[in-house]
TrEMBL record:
The lineage of its organism: Bacteria, Bacillati, Actinomycetota, Actinomycetes, Kitasatosporales. The chain crosses the membrane at residues 30-51, 133-153, 160-181. This is Metallophosphoesterase. Keywords: Hydrolase, Membrane, Metal-binding, Transmembrane, Transmembrane helix. It comes from the Bacteria. It comes from Streptomyces enissocaesilis. InterPro entries: Calcineurin-like_PHP (IPR004843), Metallo-depent_PP-like (IPR029052), Metallophosphoesterase_sf (IPR051158). The keyword Transmembrane helix applies. It holds the Pfam family Metallophos. Residues 246-413 form the Calcineurin-like phosphoesterase domain. The keyword Transmembrane applies.
């Protein structure tokens, strides 16, 4: 009897206490579930929601991030970043350019013609990476939300609900990004960091793609057409080179501009060039990866005489020495090419090497003095030199009185003068339009080369044509003929 009364008492006093347990409001439960889903999805993306993929010659990491504004951010460390308004959605695509792949970049250097298909290759790489990223992001978001839901609620049903809600939110974000996708956003990027000066340096993306492509394809044809026009309409009858005249093409400071080979090849064909003389700075940094850029020299249609510039390394020189049809001159070495005796010396300084302090003009003068001594030795040996070559005009001036003509470059500007003891110094501008340095200038640097006409008997300069082309993105050309003072009527 007592036990029955105790059970009755307990039932009357314990039942009401169970009604004191607080039941969450449905909106609060939904808000809590949403917070769990968002945190879990964010953690999932943070841990496994990224893809490392090749994009053209670089390796990049693509990641989806939570964002209120959406869009795409491309980080190019350490230069800065550029942001594109590609879409409106609560997710942002981050692309981190990690490093330049040496194998793929060297393949581009060795085969510049692949640049024409680089755009399609990059588009395919980005599409493949984006597809892999979409799959991985779905797995990351659902897994992260489900795992955190299980940890918080400790109920499989609630955890699965969190995973399903995460997948629904990601699907809605994807649809929003697809509907608002703006492919033209690449034409109006926002730059930050060191890249913030890029718009003023290179202009908008539309002009880069269209004008540079036209520039590189049409420049050689422009040279051909202007040359023919000059031959047909020249009003300078004071000097008409006959077929026996020796023709030398002087080029300099190409600085890795692949369009230069098309220009030089066209000039060789149009002017029937006997020999090409390059007074250096064919490269930009002198690295081994750049060496493949030199391969077209063997197919230019004329012997190629070369001296080292301050941007050409010893590795560059060794590579050129192995190329067919190339004559590398250094330390006063002389060769006879196409009936001309030519001697030259390489620049004593390699300025891209920041570990070595440049010695400046004194080193250049010493190189010029050694070249002048070699020229005197050649004359005493009965093999006088017709043309001397040095990269820096400071070195070239030291040959005054030892040779009729000395060629130089380096300053990216044409100069022509007769030195005190009778040697004519001809300094050529940049045949590569300054290379990539053209982008650093307010106005494009012009492309310059000269055709020298020499008498076959005396080996003396009779006249020269200066070819000047508009710089990067410009299509203007000028050909002008000049006579040395002693050859004017």
């Amino acid at each position: 009897m007592l036990t029955r009364l105790q059970r009755h008492y307990r039932s009357r006093h314990t039942a009401p206490t169970s009604t004191l347990v607080h039941t969450p409001h449905p909106y609060a439960r939904l808000l809590g579930l949403t917070a769990v889903v968002l945190c879990g999805a964010w953690l999932g993306l943070l841990i496994v929601g990224s893809v490392r993929t090749p994009v053209g010659p670089v390796d990049a990491t693509m990641t989806l991030r939570a964002s209120a504004a959406g869009g795409t951010k491309i980080n190019v460390s350490p230069l800065g970043a550029l942001e594109l308004d590609t879409h409106t959605a609560p997710v942002r695509l981050d692309v981190d350019v990690d490093q330049l792949d040496p194998v793929r970049s060297q393949a581009l250097v060795e085969h510049p013609e692949r640049l024409s298909g680089l755009q399609e290759e990059i588009a395919e790489d980005v599409a493949d990476g984006a597809t892999e990223l979409a799959v991985r992001s779905c797995v990351a978001v659902v897994s992260g939300a489900t795992a955190l839901g299980l940890a918080v609620y400790r109920r499989p049903r609630r955890a699965l609900a969190a995973g399903g809600l995460a997948l629904a939110l990601l699907t809605v974000s994807g649809i929003s990004a697809y509907v608002t996708w703006n492919p033209k956003s690449v034409l109006e990027p926002r730059f930050s960091g060191l890249l913030s000066s890029a718009p003023s340096v290179v202009g908008n993306a539309r002009s880069i793609v269209s004008e540079f492509d036209v520039y590189q394809k049409e420049l050689a044809r422009l040279v051909t057409n202007v040359t023919k026009l000059y031959d047909a309409t020249s009003s300078l009858p004071t000097y008409q080179p006959d077929p026996a005249t020796m023709r030398v093409l002087h080029v300099s400071d190409i600085h890795l501009n692949p369009a230069s080979w098309h220009i030089i090849g066209s000039l060789v064909e149009q002017y029937d060039i006997d020999v090409i003389i390059d007074s250096g700075d064919t490269m930009d940094h002198g690295t081994a990866a750049e060496n493949g850029f030199l391969d077209p020299i063997s197919d230019l249609g004329a012997p190629y005489v070369w001296v080292r510039g301050n941007h050409d390394s010893a590795a560059t020189q060794r590579y050129l020495e192995r190329l067919k049809g190339v004559h590398v001159l250094d330390e006063g070495r002389a060769v006879t090419v196409a009936g001309l005796r030519i001697a030259g010396t390489g620049d004593p300084q390699f300025t891209p090497d920041r570990s070595v302090e440049p010695q400046g003009d004194p080193a250049e003068r010493m190189a010029g003095i050694r070249l002048a001594s070699a020229l005197r030795d050649q004359k005493r040996a009965g093999t006088p030199v017709d043309i001397a070559v040095a990269h820096n005009p400071v070195a070239a001036r030291e040959t005054d009185g030892t040779v009729p003509l000395v060629l130089a470059g380096h300053i990216h500007n044409r100069k022509n003068e007769v030195l005190d003891q009778g040697t004519r110094l001809k300094i050529e501008g940049s045949t590569g339009g300054g290379g990539l340095r053209a982008l650093q200038n307010e106005k494009p640097e012009k492309v310059r080369a000269s055709v020298l006409y020499l008498d076959r008997t005396t080996r003396r300069l009779q006249a020269w044509d200066e070819i000047t082309l508009g710089g990067l993105g410009l299509t203007t050309a000028e050909v002008s003929r000049h006579l040395p003072k002693e050859n004017r009527p």
